[in-house]
Amino acid sequence: MLTIISKYLDHKLALLPDLPGCYLMKNEDNHIIYVGKAKNLKNRVRSYFKSQHEGKTARLVADIVDFETIVTSSDKEAFLLEVTLIQKHQPHYNIKLKQGTGYPYIQITNERDPIIRITSEIKDDHSFYFGPYPNVYAADETMHFIQKVYPLRRCQGNLKRPCLYYHMGQCLGACFKSVPKSVYREQIKKIKRFLNGDVADVKKELTQKMKEAAAELNFERASELRDQIQYIEATVEKQKIITTDKTTRDIINFYVDKGWVSVQIFFIRQSRLLKREKKLFTLTDDVSEEMTTFILQFYKQDNQLLPQEIVVPSELDIKFLSDLIGAKVVSPKRGTKKDLLDLAKKNSRLVLEEKFKLIEMDERKTIGAQREIFEVLKLPYGSIIESFDHSHIQGTDPVSAMVQYKDGKKNTHNYRKYKLSGRFEHQNGADEAANTREVIRRRYERLLKEKQSLPDLILMDGGDIEVNAAKDVLKNELGLTIPVAGMVKNDKHRTSDLIFGEPLQVVRLKRNSQGFYLLQRIQDEVHRFAINFHRQKRSKNSLSSQLETIPGIGPKTRQKLMRHFGSLAKIKQASISNLQEAGLNKKQAQTLSLSLSAQKT
Q1: Which pLDDT belongs to residue 384?
Q2: Which of 44, 42, 43, 60 is nearest to 3 (CA)?
């Protein structure tokens, strides 16, 4: 789609500099809707308005009424500024990442008597951080294991006496003595080795201690050590070792199709795939530019710990990314890391294909289903269906309700309720024709007066009486030619068929078709909406009728009571002093209390 631009924008485009920098696109409300960066601002910004676009980019350009630019000294500086501006303004069309991952990490604090704990906040405090872990449970289990096998400090310290954890062998004794720094260093060294995947030594050590405890007939201690060995076997050793080194590594790859990008990030920790993250977003810029921005944003988050190595596909500029992030970035051609990179791409493709299938299934149930209804009625496809139903009890308290469906989905913002005047024939209960005439007249007279768009199809929950009444008002009173069909139910009061045409004829939908299922949903929804409205009205009228008979309780007083108590039941339970608190004088409160008591009996 080629966009026609204003003279104002055309003049601004002519003044753009041939320099690197960032550009900020704005809509008619002067809100920043997109932030981008460019090696050459003049060429990049002009390309939005001088080229053809599809999808998200076309929608973006259609919303732009102004822009501004910020010149930078280099392309690298432009990337860094872009991320800062995106985080600040959160533009609608940019990739959005939540600030902070919320992932759990294990932290060994940097203090005289260090402790080990779980945190989701990473600070530049010279502590040791390990993770991210897939969830808090996994991090918690690992931490508890370390506290038992390689204890540091568990208590607050300086208690002047041994704490419970010291007696349990889970504290080095900072509670009552000065623990040498060398002891802490040795423990931390062992913890780091374990968390980096080297579990052979600790397993060997625990097995030896278990045997010694059993030989000394200390079976309780031997059982505890056995459980710790089983923990290693169940949670660490059973995980497949996927690399031979101990490098903390993130694998990032992506797959592009139909204007969408699917990203997979594998977190390799302790020589194992510890966690995976996936992201989906639509393309607005060149894919390599978008991915560079995404990766930079990802590692600029507050609580994102940089790994020792980041593995990315060869399409991205490795050196440029490394300079931007401040970490080693590689793109392997073969070997285990290349296999992991390919696996990340395969997962990216599967996630995106799943999304497209879900969209397709959703469209079959919504747009496709609505199309079936229009086709069976031999009508051109229309986006809006409005459906009406009436509710009453033997003609009393008549109401009508309207629901609207847009492209097969409920559009609850445009639901409407109508209190009807209540014309009825004494022999047959409610006058359905009169009720239909009234609600159709009120609904579409208003739309005409307000010059609002009309529906493409009206569905009446009923038979020929309602359909003919609606058609008569539309054609002969309002001069409208909106198609009207009736939703007929079977003897079990379930959706059966449509009636439509001139004269009215039964139109059948296949019982297993998406169109029939949508018709059921519409009929059930409008019936539910009408019934609920009628119950509300009836409940209110019941309350009003009981209070209206009481001397001295007028409309304003009834409103006071309802606002204060909320229901008749609570009013009946209220004491005289409670009634006075609601704004009644003493005489009114006494009269109301006595009258309601008499009604109970």
Answers
A1: 94
A2: 60
